Amino acid sequence: MAVLRVKQGRIKKKKHESLKILPKDLVVEIFSKVASHSIADICKVKLCCKEFLHAAEDNYVYQHASMDKFALVPLQWFTQEKESSFLNRCKESGNLEILYREGMVQYFSSLRVKLGLENLKKAALKGHGEAKYVYCMLLMCGEDQEQRNLGFDLFRSLKTSTYVRRCRERVKSFIKSMWMNNPVARNHHLSLCHSSTCKLQKLSKRLSSWVEDEDDGITCEYCNGDYELNIFCNMFRV
């Protein structure tokens, strides 16, 4: 057993030495992947050596750090100083998940609608899935046709129905976790699709019953947008 432990220790040391000779940018990229999956693992990495600590403290790593272990809407009086420091560093580094979460709270809860929409827009345009979902839905909820068209284009860029459903479920969980103070999404009444032919399909029945994940028969992209938008607006009904 003692011999085995020595050999394992040598293997780990060789792995660390191998990483040390890699370019710093590459090591930072590797650590950003680690941080995006596990905060606990990136903390362990920092304890290995000074070189790893320095690389793991790069802003790029904090920018991609996972927020899964933190409450969606953290309460300041329950958040420890170490956690607050970490979250602030992530925010300063441009972490998209934090930008999305702040945008959600600002728009729907604290009534800082303009700032919230701007933060959701920033996160959405930089590739955050849930932020893009919410942002495009909010644009399609409005009455400005140019903004509705922009929202519809963003909605189509979400690509697959499976990806849309995943974003929807995560957004729904977020909405349930915070105090809702902005019912603007309930005011949706305009249709994206103006074709009488499409309206003769079974879409109207599905919308009226609010059944989710039964959009396989919807072939019109605009009808599909109306279907998803109605589900989104229904999240805010009490």
Description:
The protein is an all-alpha fold. 66% of the residues lie in helices and 0% in strands. The protein is built from 14 helices and no strands. Helix 8 (113-125) packs across helix 9 and helix 9 runs antiparallel to helix 10. Residues 6-11 have low confidence and may be disordered.
Which features does this protein show?
mainly alpha, elongated, 66% helix, 238 residues
Architecture blueprint of SSEs:
Elements: H1 2-20, H2 24-37, H3 39-46, H4 50-56, H5 59-63, H6 81-92, H7 96-108, H8 113-125, H9 129-141, H10 145-156, H11 161-176, H12 196-199, H13 203-209, H14 221-234
Helix pairs in contact: 2-3, 7-8, 8-9, 9-10, 9-11
* End-to-end C-alpha gap: 63 Å
Order of helices and strands: HHHHHHHHHHHHHH
Proportion of residues in extended strands = under 5%
- Give average pLDDT, whole number: 78
Count up the helices.
14
Question: Judging from the principal axes of the Cα atoms, what is the shape?
Answer: elongated
Which spans of ≥5 residues are poorly predicted at pLDDT below 50?
A: 6-11
Structural class designation: mainly alpha
Name the helicity range. 55-70%
Kindly state the number of beta strands. 0
Report the biggest beta sheet as strand number plus sense, adding barrel if it closes. none
Rounded to the nearest angstrom, the radius of gyration is 23 Å
